[in-house]
Amino acid sequence: MARPSLIELEAVLAIVRHGSFRAAALDLGLSTTALSHAVGKLERQLGVRLLNRTTRSVSLTDAGRSFVEQVGPALGAIQGAMDTARAQQETPSGTLRINAFPTGAREILAPLILAFLRRHPRVHIDLVTEGRLVDVVAAGFDLGLRGADLVPADTIALPLGPPRRFAVAASPAHLDRHGLPRLPQDLLAHPCIRVRLPNGALYRWRFEKAGQDVQIDVQGPITLDEASLSRLAALDGVGIGYFMEPDIREDLAAGRLVQVLQDWTPALPPLCLYYPSRRHASAAFQAFIAMARDFATKRADQPGTRLGSASARSPAASQRRSPT
Q1: Which residues form the HTH lysR-type domain (predicted)?
Q2: Are residues 213 and 223 in the same domain?
Q3: CB of 315 within 8 A of CB of 149?
Q4: Residue 203 CB neighbour total at 10 angstroms
Q5: CA 276, 279, 280 angle in degrees (round to 5)?
Q6: Domain match, 170 and 158 both
Q7: In this structure, is residue 127 part of a structural domain?
Q8: pLDDT in tens, 204-262
Q9: Which CATH number is 247's domain given?
């Protein structure tokens, strides 16, 4: 059996509300003939008369009165939900879910995400960080954040900055005791902070120079699976650590850590936001993308930086070599 449409339900409620077909038709923007046809169609679908009508008046039947009492609140809830959806299209509000790997999340949290929340206080951001690569659509996320080489080909990618780099670093006191490594192989004689990947495997530190690719299975007194813990261990002088450069940038600038083997740490693809095509994106989503583009432009304009020049690598290779 065919289901009644919203306009047919609204027709009956409008007639009851106004007490006449003419006033109800004006309210709904219909002709009186179209309104009468809508009511007649609904009554045929239900198999019961809802309205008693003459040339002078209109009133509810008993069945019509029971119908309106039940349908009225439900239709009001539907209209309220539609108004809420329209409001989210006009004013940034609601929730945006973002999936990111931890280092990338740390890099954009303050300058992009927190700045966005200050500008749009009616928006809630649900940021989930994890090392594994997920299907953002299947997992219910609005956006993903990964290196450009891990962005799915069927999504839209927005580069957020210049190519990134790894950084090998230790405290000044540690290097005073053990000396400076000149080549990656020298690390085999140094205490190092080992890295465990999300899949449980130990990460082999990767280096590259002049086409020479070297992977070192370092040894040391501790194995950690979180970059912030590795940073604390390095600051305490436990050993040499292998980091994403943004995670220790302030420590390097302040002299708390000293970077080594700079000429052996290759560039990585730039950080990217990515998302499926959104034909009817919410106002919150559109505002976040606009602010992300502005953020990327400002980073590109900083001296000595440029967007997206790193060579792409296969996702499998990137996951094998990334410690964060």
Answers
A1: 4-61
A2: yes
A3: yes
A4: 20
A5: 115
A6: no
A7: yes
A8: 999 999 888 999 999 999 999 888 899 999 999 999 999 988 889 999 999 999 999 99
A9: 3.40.190.290
Read off the pLDDT of residues 2-21 as tens digits, 9 standing for 90 and up. 566 778 888 888 888 888 88
- CB neighbourhood size of 69 (10 A): 10
* Whole-model pTM over 0.70: no
In sequence order, the β-bridge partners of residue 128 are 99
Instruction: Say how many domains are in the chain.
Output: 3
Tell me if 35 is assigned to some domain.
yes
Domain stops at, among 75, 90, 105: 90
The pair of structure tokens assigned to 14 is 């409008």
Residues 155 and 106 in one domain: yes
CB 320 within 8 A of CB 280: no
3-state SS, the chain, equals CCCCCHHHHHHHHHHHHHCCHHHHHHHHCCCHHHHHHHHHHHHHHHCCCCEEECCCCEEECHHHHHHHHHHHHHHHHHHHHHHHHHHHHHCCCEEEEEEECHHHHHHHHHHHHHHHHHHCCCEEEEEEECCCCCCCCCCCCCEEEEEHHHCCCCCEEEECCCCEEEEEEECHHHHHHHCCCCCHHHHHHCCEEEEECCCCCECCEEEEECCEEEEECCCCCEEECCHHHHHHHHHCCCCEEEEEHHHHHHHHHHCCCEEECHHHCCEECCEEEEECCCCCCCHHHHHHHHHHHHHHHHHHHCCCCCCCCCCCCCHHHHHHHCCC
Question: What is the residue range of 85's domain?
Answer: 6-90
pLDDT tens for each residue of 129-150: 987 888 988 898 999 999 898 8
**How many Å separate Cα 161 from the centre of its chain?**
17
173 and 157 together in one domain: no
